[in-house]
Every structure is written in C-alpha cells, then in structure tokens.
Specification:
alpha/beta, six-stranded mixed β-sheet, four-stranded antiparallel β-sheet, 12 helices
Amino acid sequence: MPIEVRQVSYAYASGVRALADVSLRIGDGERVAFVGQNGSGKTTLVKQFNGLLRPTSGSVWLGGADIATQRISDLARQVGFAFQNPDDQIFRNSVESEVAFGPFNLGLRGASLQAAVDEALGALELARWRDEHPYTLSYAARKLVCIAGVAAMQTPVLVLDEPTTGQDRLGVERIEHLLAARSERGTTVLVVTHDMAFVARNFDRVIVMSAAQIHADGAPSEVFWRDEVLSGAGLEPPPVVRLSQRLGGPRFWTVSGAASALQPRLPDRTSKSTLSEEAGT
C-alpha cells in the first residue's frame, strides 16, 4: 500500500517541532528503514502513517486517501505498528491472547484467527510460551511478542520501531525471517532503527533523518557512502562499508556482498565467517 507525505510538519504540545515540512512517497511493497539519532523525528514521522499522531500542517495519504478523513480504527486495518517499548503495548495475561488481540479486533474469528496467531507465534518461535504471562518473559522476548501481535493482524503496511533492540543474534534472525516472508507477500515493511547492519541486510531504501527533516533518501549503496550526512545525523555505516572504502574496489555493505566481491582476490581458505570477523560484524 503506497504512502505519501505532503509537506508535513508536527509540533508537540511542549512546543518541540519534531517534523519540519517533510515530504516523501513510499511505494507499495517497499522495504524502507528510517535512521537517525534520538530526537531526529523518525518515530514521529512513522506515527503519522496510522493516525497515532496527526500533522500540525500538511497531509498524509494512505492508499490514495487522506488519512485525515479516516478513523484510527480504520487505519489499524491498513497499518500495523509495533512500539519501541513492549511494555507500552502488552496488557493481556497470556502470550497467545496478546497476539490474538489485534486480529480479533479486525474481525478474525475461529479457525482464521487461530491460523493467524499460530503463524505469527511460529515465525518468531514463541509457540512454546503461548500460555505464559508476557511479563514472565525477558524484555527481548516481550518485544517479539509485540511484533507477533502486529504481524498476526496481516496488515498491508507493517511498521516496527527499533525491533532489534535487546535481541541476541537468534532474535534478530527471527525478525529478519518474518520481514522477508511478509515482503514476499507484498507487505510494505518499514522500520525505525539504529542498527545499521540490520538495515544493510534487509532494506532496499534508507531514509536518514536529522533535526526534524530528511537529509538523505536512497539505496544503501548510495546512502552508506555519504559520510558527511551520516556523521551529521550521529550515525556510522556498518563496519563492512569501511572495509569497502579502504579497499577502494566495488561497493559492498553486507558480509555476503563482501564475500562475493572479494572472493577472486582472497585465498581459498578465506570464509564468510573470517570476513565477518575482519569487518567487525
């Protein structure tokens, strides 16, 4: 589902201006990462997409319709949103009922509801905890529960705010597998994140925000080489990008990309894991 932001500004009641005349278009089925330091405006921007926040000026269009004309309950059918802090989202007394809450409120019942819940729990390997109270789980597991709850809604747009925070490697891999599967179905996948290596592996488009505005918007192969823009936004590219820059050859921004680009130049014993160690990822 396409999203269009037209000259949107937003100011909080405190007077802080979080967005300043921001415009962009996100195409149907795109995978887009919003990056920038805290306070840059990225979370404020994505909250405009489902009506959690409404523009102070400008407009947001979802699927060709101005969201100003739509209720939040209607927008929830189109945009699923997982909060950065799972404790802002969890309120049910079991993992299964928490994951079922969203799709139930969208009208799913019986076998259709159970199938959506089972699929989301399975994708994030949470099925063994379905009867547990969410607050008996670790912070990282609670984040996965929140992501599962939003994924179970099967909305055409999926927004995750800092999904990899607190996750170990296996947790990140579960999230990556879920996003890949949803992307294959045509879901528009959007994330807010500081995890640049996660961005490099999973996203085709990177939007860099700083001081309430967009300062770069493009593919990783372009954005990760804009050192001045990244440093101005308080960001560092993935370490493997620095390796690519030092070598001065073909650009690569993931370990798998480095392996493909450098294989002809490396001894046979050099493996992807060795490259990963050398690149610091």
